[in-house]
Amino acid sequence: MDEQHVMNEQLEKQNSAKFICTANHGFAPYAQEELRRLFGSVKSTMLLPGEVFVVTLATTVQETVECINEKAPIFLRHIFPVLMEIPGDDAGQAIRQAVTYLLKREELEGSRVSVQVRKVEGSSWTESLGLLRDQLQEKLTPLEADFTVQNPEWIISLFAAKKTWYLGISRPEQNLSDWNGGAVRFQREEGQISRAKFKLLEAEKQFDIPFDTFRNALDIGAAPGGWSSFLLERGLQVTAVDPAKMHDSLRNHPNLRIVQKNASEVKFKDAQFDLLVCDMSWSPKQMAKLVTNLLYSLAPGGTAVITVKLLTKKPMALVHEIIDIFEQSRMQIQGAKQLFHNRDEITLYMIKY
Ligand SMILES: C[S@@+](CC[C@H](N)C(=O)[O-])C[C@H]1O[C@@H](n2cnc3c(N)ncnc32)[C@H](O)[C@@H]1O
After folding, report:
1. Which amino acid residue places its CA nearest to atom 13 of ligand 1?
2. 60 dihedral zone (left: phi>0; alpha: psi -120 to 50; beta)
3. Collapsed DSSP state (helix, strand, coil) of residue 305
4. Would you call 130 helix, strand, or coil by DSSP?
5. Over the Cα atoms of the chain, what is R_g?
6. What are the two backbone dihedrals, phi and then psi, of residue 8, each rounded to the nearest 5 degrees?
7. How far is Cα 293 from Cα 242, in angstroms, rounded to an integer?
8. Which residues, 6 or more positions from 297, have their beta carbon under 8 angstroms from its beta carbon?
9. Phi and psi of 269, rounded to 5°?
10. Rounded distance between C-alpha atoms, residue 348 and residue 296, angstroms
11. How do strand 17-22 and strand 273-278 relate by DSSP bridges?
12. pLDDT at res. 321
């Protein structure tokens, strides 16, 4: 075993852990704050302003991952444990060092492995990321690994910053997300009404929401209809409320009732719906008031999925204020997360009791 390898084996066992952490653009300071709340003082350095930072914690990798998974942070989207730091001034040299290290990792031999690479502007790798990934995979051929994007057993992560390249090997569940940097990508479909649909698709995956088990949904702030179309595809009856016009392709759908009104002017039967979704892009407190006024129409045990716009310099305080409002209205929070497709919002997943 060479010196570098011995050093890295020690790094994995020692009582401190280094992670590359990613949040939505502009929200890294809040992800840092979440880590401070979980682990006390943490040493961290920004690698991509507002988005990606490296953090050192006085716990082991396993303890850190368990704690983060249990506490489910809102703004921290993706992490990977750093096993090796490589001088980054010469890309060719850095790749050679990374490959030498990886070829010695027995757990990768014959396994399903995903190689996820990212870089900052100004890193010594000037070609495309696809090419970097391909080069790594080619040089790792002796491992006889099955290089895959879907359902890997192991993820090799490489973040090429300006001075240093950070390398990690982890199980998907250690990264908070098995997507590269937590950037969940969906294929845009032909005739797709809005990009907003991706938010609901991502929420479904993130929170494991069984949309096709619901029957009757209320969609508040529904136009132009991305979320409604998603729910219709899952076989639900949908009532769409919005003063704006729904997309023409939805206008005669047999399972869709369009109520072209402000949500403050509508009335429904008690417990009429088993799902309530709201994506209003509006003042969060007004939205919370409007939605809580309509909660009588959601049956006990019903589910709500709501986006909260963070138009404030204090998003943490705002999120807690909104969560409090819903908790006081018999809603139990199942999940709160800034999804990749949320940009400057978060998504709340709640159940009525
Ligand atoms: C971001 S868009 C919703 C996109 C939609 N989820 C989709 O998938 O296509 C926000 C919508 O909320 C609607 N909205 C804002 N305030 C509203 C209110 N008080 N009542 C009903 N709809 C409202 C707007 O008219 C707008 O169409």
Report:
1. 221
2. beta
3. strand
4. helix
5. 23
6. -75, -35
7. 16
8. 218, 268, 269, 270, 271, 272, 273, 276
9. -80, 155
10. 18
11. unpaired
12. 96
Tokens of 119: 């870089």
- 280 in ligand 1 pocket by Cβ < 6 Å? yes
Q: Hey, is 158 helix, strand or coil? A: strand
Measuring from atom 14 of ligand 1, which residue has the nearest CA?
Answer: 221
Pocket test for ligand 1, best of 264, 281, 343 (most atoms within 8 A of CB): 281
CA atoms within 13 A on the CB side of 162: 9
260 lines ligand 1 (CB under 6 A): no
13 CA distance to ligand 1 middle (Å) = 51
Q: Read off the tokens for 294.
A: 């309509």
User: Average of pLDDT values for 148-173?
Assistant: 96
Q: Which atom of ligand 1 is nearest to the CA of 193?
A: 9
Sheet holding 237-241, edge to edge: 256-259, 237-241, 216-220, 273-278, 298-309, 345-352, 331-337
What's the pLDDT band for 106 if we cut at 50, 70, 90? very high
- In the chain, the amino acid numbered 309 is K
Parallel/antiparallel/unpaired status of strands 256-259 and 237-241: parallel
CA dist., res. 7 & res. 9, Å (int) = 6
Q: How far is CA 311 from CA 10, 176, 233, 281, 305, in A?
A: 45, 26, 32, 10, 19
Q: How many residues does the chain have?
A: 353
With bands split at pLDDT 50, 70 and 90, how would you rate the model's confidence at 335?
Answer: very high
- CB of residue 241 inside a 6 A radius of ligand 1: yes
Q: What is the C-alpha separation between 91 and 98, in angstroms, rounded?
A: 10
How far is it, in rounded angstroms, from Cα 22 to Cα 68?
13
How does the average pLDDT of the chain come out, rounded? Answer: 94
Q: How far apart are CA 275 and CA 141, in angstroms?
A: 49
Q: Quick: pLDDT tens for 40-70.
A: 988 999 999 999 999 999 989 999 999 999 9
Query: Residues 182, 78: contact at Cβ < 8 Å?
Result: yes
pTM here is 0.93
